[in-house]
Fold this sequence. Notes:
Elements: E1 5-8, E2 18-24, E3 31-32, E4 37-42, E5 47-51, E6 56-61, E7 68-70, E8 74-80, E9 115-116, E10 123-124, E11 153-155, E12 158-160, H1 162-171, H2 189-198, H3 258-273, E13 276-284, H4 294-308, E14 314-317, E15 322-325, E16 331-333, E17 335-337, E18 340-342, E19 345-346, H5 354-370, E20 383-386, E21 406-410, E22 414-420, E23 423-437, H6 443-457
Helix pairs in contact: 1-2, 4-5, 4-6
Amino acid sequence: MADIKTFYLPDLGEGLPDATVVEWHVKVGDTIKLDAPLCSMETAKAVVDVPSPYTGKVVKLHGAAGDIVETGAALADFEPDPNAKQRAESQETGHHHGPKKSVGSPAPDDGGKVVASDEGGEVESNGKADREDEGTVVGAMVSGSHVHVEQAASIGGVKAVPAVRALAKKLKVDLTRVRPSGADGVVTMKDVKDAAANGSAALGAAPARAVPASAGRHLAPELPQPEPQRGPVSLAGKPVRTTSPSQQASGQPEQLKGVRRNMARVMADAHAQVVPTTLVDDADLHAWIGKQDITARLIRAIVFACKTVPALNAWFDGKNLTRTLHPQVDIGIAVDTDDGLFVPALRNADVLDAAGVRAAIKRLRSQVEDRTIPASELSGYTISLSNFGMFAGRYATPVVVPPTVAIVGAGKLSHDVVAVIGGIEVHRRMPLSLTFDHRAATGGEAARFLKAMLDDLAMPH
């Protein structure tokens, strides 16, 4: 009987309890070599290739494209080639090839091997948790010390990183027809987007289903049935019902994946842990001289307020009731995408000028859009900013994600009528919303922080 080995989904360096299958690079019955790309998996940060742990034949694939696989669950079964050199089970690879263990279960001395847990994100190493927080998309997550680096793998004659392959699949672009512009013939994100825009590499229509020769007749393709027309009266000419159907609902449930799945977890945790309070006010921009970079001014105002009231530029540990004040100002910039919310860190905002702020934000947004942003850029910020006003809305109650203490929300600019000595004037104003964790900061500290922002934004330049 052949020796069948089961490969369990390793911790992909994200510390998340699961990942989503984007694409299998093999099928059952294929022969694969050690470390060749097995499949692409989407996590909360990126799309990464999972390499094969064996040289041999693929016997079974656990899950199809789009399925969510838990960390530590079976991913694929292999029949290793007895004549090929295999990696020793004890050899360090950044993977754990055994089934997951629950936290608290005794762990053998395995030389520091990382073991995924049933709880998701918790690990053991010689019976002790020893991993540190290395960041996330929104909030703090535990992650492994071995991280998969996206590399351009040649699959089907096309060189591209997993994120590019995932984008091509999403945009229905045939990678084999895309002209690469990257070094060494690598297809880039821009290549895929350009191909999607000009339609030069659209996927062909799905082939017609094969019909057995013995059928003796032509089968017409199934056409989608038109949805019933809705109107104020029924087919019988009577008014339609005004109550909702009791059982049937419109649409289908959609499983959250990747970034959105992690966002849901982080926001729920923040809601359970933080004691939020929100203050709102309007910054008067009437004194501004000439055209100015609004985002840069907003960043500068936050930095000024952090220096004036350090209590809000801090981390708070609710379990141990400890507070860490930060000498530097690293601002988490909320970036909204179709996949979910990313919060990259604008490092050392307190030493950047307006041009430096603009260049850094442009770089971070570009990396987020391309899903090439390093994990280190998605953690460690000391305070957050949500500039939702670029879309709509005046005031909000932004969510404080631990361990940070505060988040600033900037609303949509407006021209308001304000009272001045001797009459009224129309001033341009920016609505500000400051949400803070009341366990770590007082109302007075929050009010003084907001006042410092208002004062800085009121300056002519």
